[in-house]
Amino acid sequence: MVRILIFAAVVSVALMIYTLIECSRAQKHLVRSLPKTAWFVVIIILPLVGAILWFVLGRPVNTGNQPSAHQTAPDDDEDFLRQLEVWRRQQQREEESTAREQELKSQAKDPKSSDSPSKPEVTGSTAPEKPEHKPEGTDSDAPDSKA
């Protein structure tokens, strides 16, 4: 019998402490039935009964767990769409960056093709090559002759 009384006392004290903490955390304007200070007095004077009364009559109605009346689809949410666009642009920049890196790596491996612009190679041709730079005072069409 004594064990049952000790257990009931421990449960009552634990419930009273929990109720006092919950009462102190509740916003003043949301507490029902009595003012917040009156609830503290009721909980302390009547430990078990005060706690039960607090849960039934004084505790604020919890509106945080109730689903909102107006739910929107993700594609109707402007913030979500904005974040999606930012993500898409970031992915596109990353893809362009990796493509540039791969292009630079391939050019570094094959320096012959990257150093000179593509010139058509003359193979098997009998035409003599013309010098690119001619000295001043010479005609481009006239043969070299000293007069």
Short description:
The protein is mainly alpha-helical and 147 residues long.
Question: Could you describe the 3D structure shown?
Answer:
This protein has 5 helices and no strands. The protein is mainly alpha-helical. α1 runs antiparallel to α2 and α1 runs parallel beside α3. The mean pLDDT is 78.
Keywords:
mainly alpha; 147 residues
Given helix and strand content, the structural type is: mainly alpha
- Strand segment count: 0
Strand content: under 5%
Largest sheet: none
Overall pLDDT score: 78
Unreliable spans are none
Provide a count of the helices.
Answer: 5
SSE series = HHHHH
Sum up the overall morphology in one term. elongated
Which helices and strands, and how do they pair?
Layout (H helix, E strand, L loop, with lengths): L1 H24 L10 H10 L1 H12 L19 H32 L1 H5 L32
